[in-house]
Design goal:
This protein is α+β, with helices and mostly antiparallel strands and 779 residues long. The chain has five domains: 62 residues; 208 residues, Alpha/Beta hydrolase fold, catalytic domain (Rossmann fold, 3-Layer(aba) Sandwich); 103 residues, no CATH class; 202 residues, Chitobiase, domain 2 (2-Layer Sandwich), CATH 3.30.379; 136 residues, Jelly Rolls. The chain contains 14 helices and 39 strands. The strands form seven sheets. It has an eight-stranded mixed beta sheet with strand order 1-2-4-3-5-6-7-8, with helices on both faces. An eight-stranded mixed beta sheet has the order 20-19-21-25-24-26-27-28. Helix 1 packs antiparallel against helix 2. 45% of the residues are buried.
Length: 779
């Protein structure tokens, strides 16, 4: 087998099994289905045999082809769908139309079958499911395009991206991040401006005491409108319905207004009284026709570019490479005056490179750069001169040709793929390193459970679990090739113990030293950093392999470990970004939920120092409004007592798609005494002993105060369901018409209790908080 052929055969087999379910003994297959399964089996068996014999091509299904690649990030097999023109001639270059599917949660094989357009290849990536085509979803699209270009003669000047709903969002994102790789984009009803949510629904409004500046910067990093200047040379044809209440038309209107003000090539069609669908069939055809008539500009004379991550810093003949300050965008505006002169203005840049391309510059003559009012001269290019030349800003001296500087740039500096925040470490090959060395048995068990939770969620979103090893199993060979996510600090994880002295932990924690607080539940004062409910996260270059990152998660005790990874990063009312670690480091305790209620959060400077970074200490007034996250003391039900509060019993299984469950508080952290705050869909399992008669509980919809103005939430409904040993014992649907109800279930003889909360009305992707209110087990 070749790796690629084996991946394609595997996903095709999975697709057939999932579509027809021939292994389901309860399913009766009709003759038509049996024929389809037998035909697929024969084709895949033949393909497998030919692949083992070294055949270059293997049989594929008619119509859209299901293909796949193996991801270097996590080793998963990622499928994509491709339609090949019937008259394909490899002697000539062909256009490629990339179609991005809408929000379909994390179902497999989304986008298949790819659409068919006469005279063009049509590619439909899965984009790793509901990712808005960002992060891993973005990488998936680029990889799929590369796979198609590897196999077929694709015209680089005719690669187009289109999509509707979340696919439209992805078209905007990919265009603003990689404008030089495409000839045009066609976003339909796409999310393009977070401010549209704020103005229409009141999402993420500013509140007194909040870190609004940091929140704004993070949100702007998610919105294409903030980087609209990147589309100065990329044609965009946007379509929206004026009556869209899922993604309001202000998204497209704001984006188009920005592009028109910039003088970018853009067309906009808004259809009156049309919603989030039902647009005229000819709309897409007209959009594609307009795009195909626009010539791609591979060597634009003026480039404007804005980037938050340096991995998004490549812009035609420019490459942004290092910021001056963290937690802020970098910008560049460069214009070719003639073949020997360029004028450049920069913002928040310490280093960038310029490519001396023959279509723009005369290699036989010096190149004069006017940068922020300073002049830098490059001599005529020699035959062995590098295609890219780098410029660095030197303190007190200004911009200089990096090749002429006496000292090379410091090895420890933030750059593409090595700049944080924590979530960025999961976009390259990584491995979970589970701590096993604690002297406390419960601590070791909780670290294993957290690793299981992480891997289960990774499987939900990415087809298969990520790689995990125990600290005693980590080899230098693995560490050299992967980022490390260390579960457990020096007392629990032997790898963390080896590396901790080489990390800037003392400087990071310095703002909190000497502070005392009341320990939760004890009423006693204790040093904050020594409290059992305190933990911290940080990302930093691996001291032993400085081109790789480590993520260190340290927790002082069980209360800080339990559900710790999922508690933070759920800040923007949009499930795609839940549990995202937007920071380089953070210190938390049981009251922490939002950025303002963390004890400390920060971003290292671009030299990876604390001194030159940005940090914030939590706001006491807001922290006081949060109840501590409760740590359930019981792993199994106590043998004595007539009643047991369910929130005192640790679930044997937690399955919540978005973040951690709240114990003694709602999902967003506000008080909910003796209760369990969830965010549907959620499934919780508890081990019982068969001695309880009943469960009595309130059930409620519970949103944080900043979500009240969102009219789309008025249609929310959640189905609460109680199961015992696999049987439904009680259920009820709760809506905002009567948001608090009571549920009672007979538990006689039950040994496995399951509580489920699922969206039953309104947009499922939008649901916020719900709760099991004071659930009580009675014998």
């Amino acid at each position: 087998f070749t790796r690629r052929q084996a991946a394609a055969i595997a996903v095709n087999a999975e697709f057939v099994l999932g579509k027809y379910k021939p292994l389901d003994r309860k399913r009766q297959l009709d003759e038509k289905t049996r024929k389809a399964v037998r035909a697929a089996h024969r084709r895949l068996f033949r393909a497998s045999s030919l692949s083992q014999q070294g055949a270059e091509h293997i049989p594929e299904e008619a119509g859209a082809k299901m293909r796949a690649y193996v991801s270097e990030v996590d080793g998963t097999i990622q499928p994509y769908s491709l339609t090949i023109p019937k008259i394909y001639d490899p002697a000539m270059p062909w256009p490629l139309i990339v179609t991005l599917h809408g929000h379909g949660w994390f179902r497999p094989f989304q986008g298949h079958p790819a659409p068919a357009n006469v005279g063009a290849f049509c590619l439909a990536p899965t984009g790793r499911g509901a990712t808005d085509y960002r992060e891993l979803g973005e990488q998936d699209v680029l990889r799929c395009i590369a796979e198609v270009k590897r196999d077929f003669h694709i015209d680089d000047d005719r690669v187009y991206v289109r999509g509707g709903s979340m696919g439209g969002t992805g078209a905007w994102h990919l265009g603003t991040h990689y404008a030089d790789q495409f000839a045009g984009i066609l976003p339909v009803c796409g999310n393009a401006d977070n401010q549209a949510w704020t103005k229409r629904w009141g999402w993420n409004r500013e509140f007194p005491g909040r870190f609004d500046g940091l929140r704004h910067w993070i949100q702007e990093g998610h919105t294409s409108r903030a980087s609209a200047m990147n589309l100065l040379n990329l044609p965009a044809y946007a379509i929206h319905g004026s009556g869209d209440v899922i993604v309001p038309p202000e998204h497209s209107r704001h984006m188009v207004a920005e592009l028109r003000a910039l003088g970018a090539p853009v067309e906009y069609r808004e259809f009156p009284n049309k919603g989030h669908g039902g647009l005229p069939g000819h709309a897409i055809e007209q959009g594609l026709g307009w795009l195909c008539a626009q010539p791609r500009i591979p060597f634009p004379k003026r480039v404007r570019w804005k980037a938050d991550r340096m991995r998004h810093g490549k812009a035609y003949w420019l490459r942004l490479e290092q910021k001056q300050r963290p937690a802020a965008f970098s910008e560049i505006d460069a214009e070719v005056v003639d073949r020997t002169h360029v004028t450049i203005k920069t913002g928040n840049l310490r280093a960038f490179s310029l490519q001396r391309l023959a279509p723009l510059f005369d290699p036989a003559k010096p190149l004069f750069l006017q940068i922020d009012g300073e002049r830098v001269i490059f001599p005529p290019a020699r035959g062995d001169a590098p295609a890219w030349v780098q410029l660095r800003r030197v303190p007190d001296l200004g911009w200089r040709d990096a090749a002429r500087l006496a000292e090379p740039p410091p090895a420890l500096r933030k750059r593409a793929w090595l700049e944080g925040p924590i979530s960025e470490a999961l976009l390259q090959p990584f491995v979970l390193v589970q701590g096993t060395k604690s002297q406390d048995e419960l601590t070791n068990k909780l670290w294993q459970q957290e690793a299981d939770l992480f891997r289960n969620e990774w499987k939900r979103r990415n087809i298969a679990p990520c790689l995990r090893v125990k600290d005693s199993e980590l080899t230098d060979e693995i560490a050299a090739d992967r980022n490390l996510v260390l579960l457990g600090g020096p007392r629990a994880n032997s790898v963390a113990a080896r590396l901790a002295s080489q990390l800037p932990l003392d400087e990071m924690l310095a703002p909190l030293r000497g502070r005392e607080v009341l320990a939760p539940g004890s009423g006693l004062s204790e040093p904050r950093l020594e409290a059992a409910d305190v933990g911290y996260f940080l990302v930093y270059p691996n001291p032993e392999h400085p081109d790789r990152l480590i993520v260190l998660w340290q927790a002082n005790g069980p209360a800080a470990i339990h559900q710790g990874w999922g508690r933070f990063g759920n800040w923007f009312n949009w499930g795609v970004y839940d549990s995202r670690k937007y920071f380089d480091y953070a210190v938390y305790d049981a009251r922490s939920a939002s950025p303002e209620t963390l004890l400390l959060l920060g971003w290292f400077g671009t030299d990876w120092s604390v001194r030159n970074g940005v940090s914030r200490i939590g706001v006491d007034a807001l922290r006081d409004g949060m109840d501590p996250q409760h740590f359930p003391p019981y792993e199994t039900v106590p043998k004595e007592g007539a009643t047991v509060r369910l929130f005192d019993l640790r679930p044997s299984r937690i399955d919540q798609m978005r973040g951690a469950i709240g114990l003694g508080r709602i999902f967003q952290g506000q008080p909910l005494p003796e209760s369990i705050g969830v965010r549907a869909p959620t499934v919780l399992e508890y081990p019982l002993d068969g001695t309880f008669r009943k469960l009595t509980t309130g059930v409620a919809l519970l949103n944080g105060p900043e979500t009240y103005t969102c009219h789309a939430r008025k249609g929310e409904k959640v189905r609460f369901k109680v199961k015992g040993d696999g049987k439904v014992l009680a259920e009820i649907v709760v809506s905002w018409a009567a948001p608090v109800q009571v549920l009672e279930a007979n538990l006689t003889g039950v040994r496995k209790l399951v509580l489920e909360a699922h969206p039953a009305g309104g947009p499922a992707w939008l649901h916020a908080g719900a709760g099991w209110v004071k659930p009580m087990l009675t014998r």
